[in-house]
Amino acid sequence: MNLTYITLATEDILSEAVATKIVKSCGFEIAERLGYRGNDYLKQKASELNRAAARGRPVFLLTDLDSPSNCPPNLIQSWIRGSPNPGFFLRVAVVEVESWVLADRGAVAQFLSVPVSRIPRETDEIAAPKERIVWLARRSRSRTIREALVPAPGSTAPVGNEYNPRLIEFVRESWDLARAASVSPSLKRTLERLRQES
User: Angle, nearest 10°, between helix axes 163-173 and 129-138?
Assistant: First the structure.
């Protein structure tokens, strides 16, 4: 099976940036991008994508676990209602893709202008990684970071207006997969699984 080209399916644009870096580091080229409609859309498409992978081009689907009480194997089984076909890679970020971003602790600390000691050493154990990034941004020495990532006073939004663009830029330019995988077991497993097939 030719694994040069791959279909990428992600929940949102930040997950897409992370997934893009992952698959390219493993030697794949992205032929098609799907998603950006959240977790429910991917759940509906998972069985179809699993069948498509069996017919040729492999598929990398990245979703969030969303809750520490969930279990990745159970989530995968419930989504595809059977066994994954060769070439279908449904991977689950524990707990959210932000936990993988935070796992490059030194680079994140520099990006957010906060002490690295404020970033937990076991990022897969953070119950709400997105909220943790906003919490860190509130304490940033950089006014630019605070204004970009923290919701404006009175806003009901969970994040600031520039949250996704700034984090995507960080992922593309500064986030290091090897450093992050050394901290995040779920990211490490994802890389190992893809590299077995590339």
Answer: 100
**CA-wise closest residue to 106 among 97, 114, 116, 98:** 116
At residue 59, what is the residue type? V
Residue 8 vs residues 22, 30, 130, 133: alpha-carbon distances, Å? 11, 7, 22, 25
Whole-model pTM? 0.93
Give the CA angle between residues 94, 98, 103 to the nearest 5°.
Answer: 80
Contact 84, 50 (CB under 8 A): yes
DSSP-H helix ranges across 55-184: 72-80, 97-102, 105-112, 129-138, 143-149, 163-173, 177-181
From first to last of the 198 residues of the chain, give the pLDDT tens digit: 445 899 999 999 999 999 999 999 999 999 999 998 888 999 999 999 999 999 889 999 999 987 766 788 888 888 998 888 989 999 999 999 999 999 999 999 999 999 999 999 999 999 999 999 999 999 999 999 999 999 999 999 999 999 999 999 999 999 999 999 999 999 999 999 999 876
- The three-state secondary structure class of 96 is coil
Residue partners of 109: CB distance under 8 A and separation at least 6: 115, 116, 118, 119
